[in-house]
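job 3f2a | input accepted
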Amino acid sequence: MRTIIRNATLVNEGQTFLGHLVIENECISEILLEHESPSAPCDTEIDATGMFLIPGVIDDHVHFRDPGLTHKADIVSESCAAAAGGVTSYMDMPNTVPQTTTIEALEAKFADAATKSMVNYSFFFGATNDNASLLPLLDKSKVCGVKLFMGSSTGNMLVDREEALKNIFSDAGMLIMTHCEDQQIIGDNIQRIKATEGDDPDVRFHPIIRDTEACYRSTAQAVELAKATGARLHIAHVTTEKELSLFSPTPLTSEKLITAEACVAHLHFTDEDYKTLGTRIKCNPAIKKATDREALRKGLSDGRIDVIGTDHAPHLLDEKQGGSLKAVSGMPMVQFSLVTMLEMVDKGILSLPLLVEKMCHAPARLFQIKRRGYLRTGYKADIVLIRPNTPWQVTSDTILSKCGWSPMEGHTYRWKVEQTFVNGQSVYAGGKVNAQVLGQCLEFDR
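job 3f2a | predicted structure (446 res):
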């Protein structure tokens, strides 16, 4: 089966050019300039005049809540939302029920996704104080990495023993992705603020409780451990200007052993937005000051920030009631990550080729994903058609996440995801998801 996408503006590896792309079965078989013709007839033709064609977005940081928390999200609903947002691959976190901290729980998630996920997938293995002995047993060809909570009270997943941390960094044998917030600083801040603001301080105190120093101290510890052990470290959701001093302002290369992720919410919102959106934008680490947001945006250009993810974390709205302590943290963003970043392209914050680098190329390179993340012949045809200058508004009926809400509700975008292909199959087009398509397990070249 051959499909040709004609007259698109292709954006790939720093280049932008008018041309055509041929999909044959699961893969990209030809990439042609506008004056070139395909080598053989095609069964289907798509006219992409006026549209941009980019590799599918790879989201390195999602919480799809499956298994055990499926009242608010599951693999089916969230992979639908991903497809509608131009996200063709995701890497899911281990704080589910049961937690993904045993080989059996990990294998169960892979088996479940094989029959449910409409886009490609992999899963992190969760490190604890007691399971470092399992790390050498992980299948490095399909497990994206080890997730380490260095500042979290999620069940038993807070790793706070020095010996356990050293063992994990020494024995992981693959990328370690860390959530970094210092629990002692957070606890002290809670007690201090509760003394004047009561048992559940307003959400505007959230970035004061989970403050810059809590982030910096924990991130600095992770960086020090990585340097001491030679571990491959990826810091999740960097939120502060101070943390950026820990990273090198250089392009991502295969030799870069310490990298950083910024999340769309921290690149888009500031603490001023708590006034209108309240706990809808409450997440951990907290959204902080405008100066921190500007530093993160600058970090995209200077190479301190390597990857853009979402930390997509759906909850029901009734779970978001309360203040800094009672309302749960997290928001659904996977459906709107690409179009939100495209708004930043329009504002001159980053270029379209740089967006493709941070959301498509860099995750593939950083995690060593086989044959994805680029428009290259022989690579899997994970591709997205996006159209500029097409205003549309986020309404409740456009939201595909199972939780049924978004902090972007009411927002008008000018970019639109027109069509998403996963492994050569159209999984989203015309505002509808093709539920017959199934994604594949990501493979890693390690």
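job 3f2a | The two ends are 31 Å apart (CA to CA).
job 3f2a | closed
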